[in-house]
Design brief:
Keywords: Signal. The chain is mainly β and 284 residues long. It contains one helix and 16 strands. It has a domain of 192 residues: Lipocalin (Beta Barrel). Strand 3 and strand 4 form a beta hairpin.
């Protein structure tokens, strides 16, 4: 009887061993990841009056961190491509804490913007050393920026920008400046935007909206790509108009974006440029 039990135990062990081997041989197919396309580069070409490419070409490269947050933008500009600058976003636990700029390939990176945060939202950004005397304050409603107030130690330099959102897109911006005589805030410009159905390929570049090149770049946070932008003065007189036309690639992403700018008023004119986009899949 003892031999029978020993034989049965041996068979059970062999069966378990075989079963384990079969389980080890099973390969679970890997589920393909959904592509996460981001802009990797832009080649910008200025067009002449006949719509033909000129010698002025701008080249821009974008990079992202391993956690997919935006890292930096570097640009070569001009006919000889010798004008170079790079902007890098700094983080602390996924919160943007500064913006660094580097001029020239041999230049030294310099922090140009620092931030104050409240509840993980940027509520103030400023040049280093000017946190309380020269800064931009951000006002939010429903987690969207609706106002930027620029304060300066010289009250004559104060400015305000107000933003109207329609859904997830900024459809109007109003710019106010200080009247140099009365020191009162006066409306000076109105920006109006229309949008396409194309998702905004620049929205993920959070941090660059802190880069104020004349005006805050809040419109970059919109959900869709702009179709047209009109700029008027406070009375509604048209000053500038920008119109976009795009071609799409096989991934249904913008391949090219042609922008025509028209200037009105005392010195009317028009100019055009075309941007060629390249992409990277962050899920590869």
């Amino acid at each position: 009887m003892k031999k029978v039990w020993l034989g049965m135990a041996a068979l059970a062990l062999m069966a378990a061993s075989c079963s384990g081997n079969k389980s080890d041989d099973i390969v679970t197919p890997e589920v393909p990841k959904t592509p996460d396309w981001r802009v990797a580069g832009i080649i910008g070409v200025h067009l002449d009056d006949k719509g033909e490419a000129s010698n002025i070409i701008d080249s821009t490269v974008f990079a992202y961190n391993p956690d997919k947050t935006f890292s930096f933008r570097e640009t070569f500009q001009g006919e000889t491509m010798d004008f170079y600058f790079k902007y890098t976003v700094g983080y602390d636990k996924n919160n943007i804490v500064n913006l660094t700029r580097k001029f020239g390939l041999t230049g030294t990176p310099k922090v140009i913007t620092e931030t104050h945060l409240l509840n993980n939202q940027i509520v103030r950004y400023f040049e280093p050393g000017y946190a309380n005397t020269r800064y931009d304050s951000l006002v939010y409603e429903n987690n969207k920026i609706v106002k930027v107030v620029f304060k300066h130690e010289d009250i004559r330099a104060h400015k305000i920008w107000e933003y109207t959102w329609q859904g997830d897109n900024v459809v109007e911006e109003r710019a106010y400046m200080t009247n140099q005589g009365t020191l009162a805030m006066e409306l000076v410009s109105i920006y109006k935007h229309t949008y396409s159905n194309v998702p905004n390929i620049f929205k993920s570049m959070t941090g660059l909206h802190l880069l104020r090149e004349y005006i805050p770049n809040v419109q970059q946070l919109s959900a869709n790509m702009v179709n047209t932008t009109t700029i008027t003065d406070a009375t509604g007189k048209l000053q500038y108009q920008f119109a976009h036309s795009r071609s799409m690639n096989d991934k249904n992403l913008p391949a090219t974006d042609t922008v025509r700018q028209q200037t009105f008023g005392s010195f009317p004119g028009a100019s055009s440029s075309v941007s060629h986009y390249k992409y990277i899949d962050l899920n590869k």
